[in-house]
Amino acid sequence: MADVASIIRLPEVMANATEAVIATWVAAEGTEVSVGDVLAEIETERAVVEMNAEEAGVLAKHLVPAGTLVQVGAPVALLLASADEPYDLAALLGEEGAAEPEPEVGAQGPTTAPSGTVSSSTDPEPGSASSDTSHGGSRVFASPLARKLAREAGVSVDVLTGSGPGGRIVRRDVERHLAETPAGAATPSHGAPSSADAAAPSRPSPSALLAAAGETLVPHSPMRRAIARRLTESKQTVPHFYLVAETRVDALLALRAQANADPARRKLSVNDFVLKAVAAAFRAVPEANVAWSEEGMRRFEGIDVAVAVATEGGGLLTPVVRGVDRLTVTEVSAAVADLAGRAREGRLRQDELEGGSTTVSNLGMFGTREFSAIINPPQATILAVGAAIDSPVVVDGRLEVAKVMRCTLSADHRAIDGALAARWLAAFTEAIENPVVALL
């Protein structure tokens, strides 16, 4: 229990993050909370993360409304030992003040809560999605990320049509509007331009210049910026090397077909067996279950495997399946389906995106024969899996046709030497070609 009134600050919700959006207040003002209770949902570049209570007490006041973009470490709420405890908010905040909410446009025009105070006139209802108010006074509901993208693009949410639950405007609605609106075309917004603005000479915008050249400028989403930053850092700082294996998967496909013949059983994918083969390879070559750090080599006891998931809008997430070596292939399939589904909905928790011995990126379902993937730091490897294609193979001096799947291992040479990577890939190949090995 909190002994005295205290300020709750926005935690660091992901590595290198400096800001995040308070998507929804789960705990309303005046709610008594225990350690570990969910106070709010925080929207980051990659996922929706829960903010939990670190002390028990009464959540007396939200210092920022839902939908606010907040800097890490900024005050977001007030916690009291009891509901009737007196407090001096200004003294508690000191000179820092509460986090500045982003301007909300309402029926009375733009309002912003001053530092150290809380404005309730435009706050969304506790626990509700953030919203704007249209010119006609009706509420237009939009996700915090959608509102942020619309604001950056100079688009009013009033002109958008929502495709989310209950007609809520989500990111894809903003991106669709930007793609369908001719570059340089005017977009209705709140308020009329001043006479000075109208008289000022206008310079062609980048969008207008691109439109003249027959091109369209689509603003980057926060997720796309995060992916670009991380992958650029990986290729620039991690010494990649690559090994390719051609694996025969006739036995695997036959076993999968046999398992899927029972309509009562969960349908298994090739990728489910790939994850089990990855776990078998780490069991056979535990020296490869490592990651590089400046302080020393990190060795993992468990075998956690991340799976690359493409999301709507071109983003890529890598949720982690924990303890793959301890799961049956059916349990692996269920875990992957759950994580992939919530990844596409933006409902992953931050801890589900952290850690992992390696990542599996499978493009075989698109017919891609072979590709090389970029390592996702701090992991030391990533396995790129291609399609299973009919190919000529030599068996006991005879030419035969078999299903062959090419797999490319990208490895961090700081953590894994070539011979070690080759041993791991050989163990993986053995498990893929003899799937019973992977299932034991």
Map the helices and strands.
Elements: E1 6-9, E2 19-25, E3 31-33, E4 38-43, E5 48-52, E6 57-62, E7 68-71, E8 75-80, H1 89-93, E9 104-106, E10 109-111, E11 131-133, E12 139-141, H2 144-153, H3 171-180, H4 195-199, H5 206-212, H6 222-237, E13 240-248, H7 250-260, H8 270-284, E14 290-291, E15 298-299, E16 305-307, E17 309-310, E18 316-317, E19 320-321, H9 329-344, E20 358-362, E21 381-395, E22 398-412, H10 418-433, H11 435-439
Parallel strand pairs: 16-20, 20-21
Antiparallel strand pairs: 1-8, 2-4, 2-7, 3-6, 4-5, 6-8, 9-10, 11-12, 13-22, 14-15, 16-19, 17-18, 21-22
Q: Gap between N and C termini, in Å? A: 48 Å
- Helical segment count: 11
As a whole number of angstroms, the C-alpha radius of gyration is: 26 Å
Largest sheet: 6 strands, mixed
Q: Helical proportion?
A: 25-40%
Named CATH architecture of the domain at 239-439: 2-Layer Sandwich
The structure class reads alpha+beta
Are there runs of 5+ residues with pLDDT below 50, and where?
95-137, 189-200
- Percentage beta strand: 25-35%
Q: What is the CATH superfamily of the domain at 239-439?
A: Chloramphenicol acetyltransferase-like domain
Strand order across the largest sheet: 13-22-21-20-16-19
* Number of E strands: 22
| Shape call | globular
**So what's the CATH class of the domain at 239-439?**
Alpha Beta
Average pLDDT metric: 81
CATH fold group of the domain at 239-439: Chloramphenicol Acetyltransferase
